[in-house]
TrEMBL record:
Catalytic activity: hydrogencarbonate + H(+) = CO2 + H2O
Keyword hit for Signal: no
Compositional bias segments (type: Pro residues): 7-20
Domain of life: Bacteria
PROSITE patterns assigned: PROK_CO2_ANHYDRASE_1
Record EC number: 4.2.1.1
Region described as Disordered: 1-23
Keywords for the protein's UniProt record, in alphabetical order: Lyase, Zinc
UniProt-recorded name of the protein: carbonic anhydrase
Physiological role: Catalyzes the reversible hydration of carbon dioxide to form bicarbonate.
CDD domains membership: beta_CA_cladeC
Amino acid sequence: MTSTPPSTTPPSPTPPPPTPRQAFDLLMAGNRRFVNGTPEHPNQDAARRTETAPVQRPFAVLFGCSDSRLAAEIIFDRGLGDLFVVRTAGHVMGPEVLGSIEYGVELLGCPLVVVLGHDSCGAVAATRAAVMDGTTAGGYVRDVIERVTPSVLVSRAAGHTEDSDFIAEHVRRSVDLLLDRSRALADAVEAGRAAVVGLSYRLIDGTAHLVTTRGLEPATDAAV
C-alpha cells in the first residue's frame, strides 16, 4: 500500500516593500481617517501579533517629539509592525537617534523617514524663552534647549513671530541635519531607496501637514 505524502502549501511570498511615495500615501491616508473620525485600527489584532512576532517589516521610520499627544500609531491609524518609532523631546537628535533611524532604513528596509513636529511644542517654547529672555532650565533639559536653539535663531532672523513658523523651521532643520549627519541615510535617498519628509501636526484638529521633502517622487494622482 503506497502512502500519499501530505500536501504542503508553499509559503506566501513576501510582498515587496512599498516605494517611498506609496509609504507616504499610506501614512497620510491613515491620518485622514483619524481626522475624519473613521479609523480602521489596522494590524491591531491577535493575528497581526502572531504574524509580527518572528520578524518586523515597518514601512516608515517616524522620528517625532515625545509629547504625550503625539502617539504615532493613533494619529496615523496604524498598528503593530507598521511604524519604527523614535521619539525625543523636541525631536532633537544624538548618536543613538541617528543609529536608530539608520537601523530602520538599512536593516529593516523602511523606505520612508518622517520627522514629526507639532504646535505648542514645549521644547520650542522653552527655547524661544531662553533666546528672548535668557531664562533656561537646568540638567539635561538645558541640552534639549541648546539643540533647538539654532532653529529658533534662524526663524527669528527671518522675521518670524508665529509659533507655526518656528515649528516649521525646526522641522526643516531637523530633516537637513539628519541628511547632513547620516551618510547612510543620504545615500539611501540619493539611490531612491528612501525619502525623508518633515510634517507638522496640529493638536486641535489632528491634521499632519507637509513641511519639506527630500527624495519623495511626485504623486501620480490626486490622492495625496
